[in-house]
Amino acid sequence: MRIPITRPALPTPQLQLTSGSQLLDNLKPGQVLQATALSENLGGKIRLQIGSTELTASTHLSARPGQSLLLEVAKTEPLPELKLLTPPGPEQVRTSAFKQLLPRQQPLSRLFDKLVDSNAPSVKQSIPAIIRQEIQALLNRLPSVEHPRFVLQFGEALLQSGILSEAHLIQGRLGNSDIKLELLKLLALVEPLIPRQQLPRGQTSGQMEASNVPGAATPGVDFLIALHKQLDAALARIQLNQLSSLPREDPIRQTWQFELPIRQGDQIDLFRITVKREQASSGAEEAVSWSLVLRMSFMRLGPMRIQLKLRGNAVSTLVWSENATTTELVMANRTTLQGALERVGLEVEKIAACTAKLEEESWIPGDTPLVSEKA
Fold first, then answer.
1. If I label 292, which of 23, 119, 168, 351 is the partner at 20 to 30 A Cα–Cα?
2. Model-level pTM?
3. In the CATH scheme, what is the code of domain 15-87?
4. 3-state secondary structure of 126
5. pLDDT, the chain, mean
6. In Å, how far from its chain's centre is CA 60?
7. Annotation: CATH topology of 280-355
């Protein structure tokens, strides 16, 4: 059996198997085999185990006893031929996950609009009480701009935005307001109430047939179907933010992305935050700079985009607003902002504001490789 190596993880181009068993008669092209090295390469020969079959290979391959090898059957005639595969690297896994999640995701604002709709009289009385209670509990836990401790709530919301859900679970430090886990809990309550044929392909566990759903003919079922879709889309969005925030191979270039639902009266708005660490120029450590972009909208101020850039202790701030009155308000209070920045030890280089139409920005980092340049 000959094995030409492609995308090698091990520095040997060919592998010739000299003995085998019934396994060789059952190989099919495309089949993937997990092999284990039983010996080192001694005199150009190595012993391998595939399932319960032990094989002796003639090869230049260097391996250590116990090392796993992933093999794919390329062809079976005239001699079986295998390819040595390598597990995908972190960037390949990340890119593959992006491609799977991207078609499903939608902004979190659409989900929270749907959650607010649950209070409509036509919906409220037609969905199960446990769903109503869970939705209301979720909305009540959101930070509120009217709350006197909003700044503290905002900081806590960053930690509970879903970016660190798994890390908090591992560390046993998870609170009761992590947004990702809250949405997963609500999804688990809603999914069994969705008619099987209405679920996305592949989601068939735990759901009931429409005829078995209490109140299946009521408007509540239509609401739950739409809610299920938005929950799935919001969770995909959070996962994309998590992928965007994973550590990079280049530690100097790093991005963190957060999307925070914020209560303003009876309205839910979305604050979008992007934090970037990058090296402005090669050389000294002080060349490392940070930027923070916050997009938000207050009822009285309108849509705003705030950018802060920090290099060393020097900070500059630029505020864009669609409302000219808001721009004037920012400039009238820039002395207060400057004093606040200086009190935490920063040197203020510039504070500026302007009025402009805010274009929608891509929240996917520009260095995310979604299209392969190789064909």
1. 168
2. 0.70
3. 2.40.50
4. coil
5. 80
6. 41
7. Transcription Regulator spoIIAA (3.30.750)
